[in-house]
TrEMBL record, chain A:
Protein name in the entry: SigE family RNA polymerase sigma factor
An example molecular function term from Gene Ontology annotations: sigma factor activity
TM ranges: none
RNA polymerase sigma-70 region domain location: 11-72
Domain RNA polymerase sigma factor 70 region 4 type: 100-152
Biological process (GO), any one: DNA-templated transcription initiation
UniProtKB/TrEMBL annotation, chain B:
UniProt KW Transport keyword: no
Family statement drawn from the similarity comment of this UniProt entry: Belongs to the LytR/CpsA/Psr (LCP) family.
Ranges where the Cell envelope-related transcriptional attenuator domain occurs: 102-244
Native organism: Micromonospora globispora
Pfam families: LytR_cpsA_psr
Protein name as it appears in the record: LytR family transcriptional regulator
Assigned keywords, A-Z: Membrane, Transmembrane, Transmembrane helix
Bilayer-spanning residue ranges: 43-62
Length: 161, 353
């Protein structure tokens, strides 16, 4: 597979995945862009792996988990011109997003916990594969998920009761 | 429950994903910038190695590529080769992303034993040849196979092409050089432009340039442009090879006028200006020795010929050696009798002026 074929077939899925991780289209774009630049520069190594797709998703996830807060905060704040890649949300959509409680709770979770949730409930991956992507034991994945769910449940109970 | 809420929330926010096209363009731009930076770093490294080699003293250095160039230029001229010499000049095509690079202009420079003049023999890039470890394929692909096996190293591409050319022509190759578009451009500009005389006008497919019939002085960008043109020429690829011969003859004349052929330091300056896109390979002969030989022969107007080939109208649609005329030509090349052969076949000689 060439880099072009990979980008043609997988770029939109990676962008959706990055949106779930970051919760923000701009950050998702930065995350995917950073990762894909490295992917293209090191394509030979990526193509040699059993599954380039899994390899790239692992790169992207690790980049997200390890991303230093300062670096992306600056990137988002200093963006000068409006970006044509990201549709400007209409007021109606924006207010709907604002009302989306669970989405905002997700943003308060530690990144690693959020990543496990996205991998299990958005990508529907088995725990073993999640563990491989994050480079940790299956047990760690399960405890991560249960802790994240417990946090969300606590918020949920608080609001609804 | 909360898990279902999560799935629903993820599904709802899929629409937030930005469009792919602008992001792909942005990735592409960044990659180009990074690659350029890497190249600059590598160039800087080469320059540094040259300086170190000059300062520390050449004999102490292990013979590594950039230092070897320095070694060859700093050594006193050793015994000059006396027999006929054959040099191989390869012009590469543009680098396609992810793909290998091919040698689209293949020029064998024959220096006869009497050093009377240079013979420029062009080999068509579509010549069907046996490539070691690959099988039968086109001549220009041998460079790609070689450089891919060497992880993009141009010298590996040169090596495999050299072996293939030796196999086809039967003559040993004593040295040669590989030129990329950028090296060609910089080299042309470094000598102050190259005079080229064209028998027919050419309209560029790639730019708006129009090359009128007749003689003209070309700068670097125009030279690269001209050497890429094959569509619209009467004899397509073979006419482009003839233009490459005309350009090579003009370039030699210009280097000669600047004193580069007799003065190694001057030539070194020119080659350094060509940058990392130019790879020089001199085999067992030293560069000054080659230059003193080629310089003498280049004083006269070179004679340009094409390898006698016929086009195969069946798969895989490339050139094959012409059974009627090629054996005599290759024998003349191997036995250093090209002056006889070209005198007997004036119609095969490319008009350079």
């Amino acid at each position: 597979m060439t880099y072009e074929e990979f980008a043609d077939s997988r770029l939109s899925a990676l962008l959706r995945y990055a949106v779930m991780l970051t919760g923000d289209p701009h950050q998702a774009q930065d995350l995917v862009q950073d990762t894909m630049v490295r992917v293209q520069l090191n394509w030979r190594r990526v193509a040699r792996s059993d599954s380039p797709e899994r390899y790239v998703r692992r790169m992207l996830t690790n980049q997200y988990v390890d991303w230093r807060r300062g670096s992306w905060a600056r990137r988002v704040l200093l963006r000068g011109e409006p970006d044509e890649a990201v549709p400007a949300p209409s007021d109606h959509a924006q207010s709907a997003v604002d009302r989306d409680q669970i989405w905002s709770w997700l943003s308060r979770l530690p990144r690693r916990q959020r990543a496990t949730l996205v991998l299990r409930y958005y990508e529907d991956l088995p725990d073993a594969e999640i563990a491989e992507i994050l480079g940790c034991a299956v047990g760690t994945v399960r405890s991560c998920i249960s802790r994240a769910l417990a946090t969300l449940r606590a918020e949920y109970v608080e609001v609804c009761s | 429950m909360i898990e279902d809420e999560l799935r629903a929330a993820f599904a709802r926010h899929e629409t937030l994903a930005p469009a792919t096209a602008p992001i792909r363009a942005a990735i592409e731009r960044t990659v180009v910038r990074r690659r350029r930076r890497r190249l600059r770093l590598r160039l800087g490294g080469t320059a540094l190695a040259l300086v170190v080699a000059a300062l520390v003293g050449v004999p102490a250095m292990t013979p590594d590529r950039p230092q070897q160039t320095a070694t060859l230029l700093l050594e006193p001229v050793p015994s000059t080769p006396t027999g006929a010499l054959n040099l191989l000049l390869l012009g590469l095509d543009g680098a396609s992303p992810g793909g290998g690079r091919r040698a689209d202009s293949i020029l064998l420079v024959h220096v006869p034993a009497d050093r009377s003049r240079l013979y420029l023999v062009s080999l068509p890039r579509d010549l069907q040849v046996p490539i070691p470890g690959v099988g039968t394929n086109k001549l220009n692909s041998s460079f790609a196979y070689g450089s891919m096996a060497g992880k993009g190293d141009l010298t590996h591409g040169y090596d495999l092409t050299r072996r293939v050319v030796t196999e086809v022509t039967g003559v040993p190759i004593d040295g040669g050089a590989v030129l990329t578009y950028s090296a060609l451009r910089k080299l042309t500009d470094a000598v102050g432009g190259v005079p080229v005389c064209l028998p027919q006008g050419i309209k560029s497919m790639h730019t708006r340039r129009v090359f009128p019939a007749g003689c003209q002085q070309l700068d670097g960008a125009a030279s690269v442009d001209l050497l890429r043109q094959r569509h619209g020429l009467t004899d397509a690829v073979r006419d482009r090879d003839r233009n490459a011969q005309r350009y090579a003859a003009g370039l030699l004349r210009r280097i000669g006028e600047r004193g580069g052929l007799t003065n190694p330091a001057m030539l070194h300056t020119l080659l350094t200006q060509a940058g990392s896109g130019l790879t020089v390979e001199t085999g067992e002969t030293s560069l000054p020795a080659l230059l003193s030989v080629a310089g003498k022969a280049a004083a006269a107007e070179p004679v340009a010929v094409g390898l006698p080939v016929v086009y195969a109208e069946k798969p895989f649609f490339g050139f094959q050696l012409d059974r009627a005329t090629a054996p005599a030509f290759l024998a003349a090349l191997g036995e250093d009798r090209l002056s006889e052969w070209t005198a007997a076949h004036p119609d095969r000689v490319t008009g350079l002026r």
